[in-house]
Structure formats: structure tokens, C-alpha cells
Amino acid sequence: AQSVSQHNHHVILSEAASLELGCNYSYGGTVNLFWYVQYPGQHLQLLLKYFSGDPLVKGIKGFEAEFIKSKFSFNLRKPSVQWSDTAEYFCAVNARGYGGSQGNLIFGKGTKLSVKP
Amino acid sequence: NAGVTQTPKFQVLKTGQSMTLQCAQDMNHNSMYWYRQDPGMGLRLIYYSASEGTTDKGEVPNGYNVSRLNKREFSLRLESAAPSQTSVYFCASGTGVYYNEQFFGPGTRLTVL
């Protein structure tokens, strides 16, 4: 079965610190990759996505992610976090063509980010 | 353009009661999804509908049924609620199959006593 691993359960940073959240997936074929953010008490919102092309993807609010195919990774980065970035972050993968998948997403278990002012 | 809407926002049930969670989207998407979110578990797919008239099981379908009423609406039914179904339920709609970006509703927080 396909899986998505997020290595950090809870990350605590001070404002202005740099952020990197890890995401690895297990599927060897073509993938679409996503990072979603969930602010406290809210629904999931798309931060950024990778379908093809440039492996360095820029998203909203200064976030970016790099797809490294050889490492099966799609890590999320931000150079300088703000208190308002406090949220839970989910990596998700669509393993294209796997088992007749109808575009289903497989989610990681999430990483909680707490930013201290 | 409301996106994906869900009702109710909160619900408390007693064990054995039934209820239906409603979901609607106005983005003309073919695919729709139901997920449950539990602490430390991420989102797990319950059921999905790739297009109007079709539904399929996801990762955790036991204890649930779904109905794709039309292209806009996709409901989730709990026939006999159990405490293990206490969770936050999210509905989503998707833009396609191979390039599928999913948009999420605000969620329903369900407690089963």
C-alpha cells in the first residue's frame, strides 16, 4: 500500500526562524504532490502543488517545496516564519495510475507547527 | 461562489442513532470525497465518488454509506453510530483524475456518546 510519511509530529520555532518540514512517499511511479495547511479550527487549504516541470514549487504566503524524485521527497520550506503560520501542515500524494486510483489523495499524519512570538 | 459547504457544523449523537452529513459543491467538479480526521492520524478517506452515479470505498468505509445525489451533492450516512465514529468529517471536491486538486469544506465535528 502507498504511504506518506511526515517525520516531525510537532515543531516549535521562534518567529523569523527558518522552517523545513519533511515529507516522503513510497510510490515509485508518477505522482502529484500537495501541501495543505489547517489553521486552528478551520478546514484544509492548499498551500502549493506539484504536477510536473520545475521541481521547486512556490506557494502562497512565502512557502515553497522541492520535489526530489530520487529521494521520494517533497519537503516544505519557509525562510522566515511568523506567528500566523501556527497551524497543522499535511503532505498529500496522488499516485497517478496506481490501482485505478481516481485521483485519490493519500495524506501524511500531519505536522503541527507552533511559532512563538 | 461558496465552494464546498457542509451541514451540520456540530452534532452529538447517542450510540445507535443514525444521521446524515450533507455536502454540496458549486465548482462543477466531477469527483467528491468524504474523509475523517482523527488526532495523529491525518485524513483518511471513507468513500469517494469519481462522477455522478458512482461511489467507491476508501480506506475506512465500515459503518458508513454514501449517496451521490447529483453532481453537486454527496451525503454520508451513519446508520448506527458508534463512539469510534467520533471524529471531524471533511467533504472535498476534486478537479480531475490525474491532476486532481481537492477543495475542502469546513468540516462537521461529530461526537458519539
Please tell me about this protein's structure:
The complex is a heterodimer of chains A (117) and B (113). Chain A has no helices and twelve strands. By secondary structure, chain A is mainly β. In chain A, the strands form three sheets. In chain A, strands 2, 5, 6, 10, 11 and 12 form a six-stranded mixed β-sheet that branches. A four-stranded antiparallel β-sheet of chain A has the order 3-9-8-7, with no helix packed on it. The mean pLDDT of chain A is 90. Chain B has strands spanning 4-7, 10-13, 19-25, 31-38, 42-49, 56-57, 64-68, 74-78, 87-94, 102-104, 108-112. In chain B, strands 2, 4, 5, 6, 9, 10 and 11 form a seven-stranded mixed β-sheet that branches. Chain B is mostly beta strands. Chain B is built from no helices and eleven strands. Chain B is globular and about 40 Å long. Chain A binds chain B through residues 9, 32, 34, 36, 42-46, 49, 51, 90, 94, 96-97, 101-105, 107-110, and chain B through 31, 33, 40-45, 48, 50, 56, 58, 90, 92, 94, 96-107.
Characteristic terms for this protein:
heterodimer; A: 117 residues; mainly beta; six-stranded mixed sheet; 0% helix; B: 113 residues; seven-stranded mixed sheet; four-stranded antiparallel sheet
What's the arrangement of secondary structure elements?
The complex is a heterodimer of chains A (117) and B (113).
Chain A: E1 4-5, E2 10-14, E3 19-21, E4 24-25, E5 31-38, E6 45-50, E7 56-58, E8 64-68, E9 73-78, E10 87-95, E11 106-107, E12 111-116
Parallel strand pairs in A: 2-12
Antiparallel strand pairs in A: 1-4, 3-9, 5-6, 5-10, 7-8, 8-9, 10-11, 10-12
Chain B: E1 4-7, E2 10-13, E3 19-25, E4 31-38, E5 42-49, E6 56-57, E7 64-68, E8 74-78, E9 87-94, E10 102-104, E11 108-112
